[in-house]
Design a protein that fits this description.
Strand content: 15-25%
Number of strands: 5
Largest sheet: 5 strands, mixed
Bound molecules: tetrahydrodeoxyuridine
Shape: globular
Helix content: 25-40%
Strand order of the largest sheet: 2-1-3-4-5
Length: about 130
């Protein structure tokens, strides 16, 4: 699957964002190593900290379907916003080798990696050492 196709999937998920408080819709699509795509959007809550981000929705949905190995993630926002710190922590846990495409609503994107987004992160190796 091409970056553009994964970004398109994330864009479709973004259209389902529940973001009545921030009005900042986010869509994510995660590609498993075996070629499946799982989608996520942000789901906000009147109790603001109960909000969950699009990236974590996508990854946890995939894990719930038995997927543990991830190749790539696309994230789409109106302006190409970067994943938050909490999402980076979950990304390094579940998909440390993922390539990440960060796109805006026009489809323009930049390519990075989870390791670049969270250098020197706390991960399973830290616990096992
Ligand atoms: N949000 C995400 O979905 N992903 C991120 O990585 C950053 C923030 C959401 C949370 C909230 O619904 C809205 O964007 C504004 O913070």
């Amino acid at each position: 699957m091409s970056p553009t196709e994964l970004i398109q999937a994330a864009k479709e998920a973004r259209a389902r964002a529940y973001a009545p408080y921030s009005n900042y819709a986010v869509g994510a699509a995660v590609l498993t190593e075996d070629g499946e795509v799982f989608l996520g959007c942000n789901v906000e809550n009147a109790a603001y900290p109960s909000t969950i981000c699009a990236e974590r929705v996508a990854l946890t949905a995939a894990v719930a379907q038995g997927k543990r190995r991830f190749a790539a993630m696309a994230v789409v926002t109106r302006n190409g916003g970067s994943p938050c710190g909490a999402c980076r922590q979950v990304m390094i846990e579940l998909g440390p080798d993922m390539v990440v495409y960060i796109a805006d609503e026009t489809g323009a994107y930049r390519t990075t990696t989870v390791r670049a987004l969270l250098p020197d992160g706390f991960d399973n190796a830290s616990l096992l050492a």
